[in-house]
Amino acid sequence: MKRLCVVVLIAAFLRLPGAAAADVIIDHDGDADDLIAISLLVRSPTVRIRAIAVCPGNSYLDAATRATQLFLERLGARDIPIAQGHSEGTNPFPAQWRTDAGHILDIPALASASTAQPSNPVVAVDAPHYLVKTLSGGQVYTILETGPLTNIAGALRLDPSIRQHIARIYVMGGAVRTGGNVQQKGHDGSAEWNFFNQPQAAADVILSGIPITLVALDATNRTPLTQAFLDRLGKQTAIASQLAVQAWRPQVAQVGNDKYYFWDTLTAAALLEPGVVRTERLKIRVITKGASQGRTVEDPRGTPVDVALDAGRGRVENLFLTLLGK
Ligand code: RIB
Ligand code: CA
Question: Using CA atoms, how far apart are residues 127 and 83, in angstroms rounded to an integer?
Answer without folding.
Answer: 5
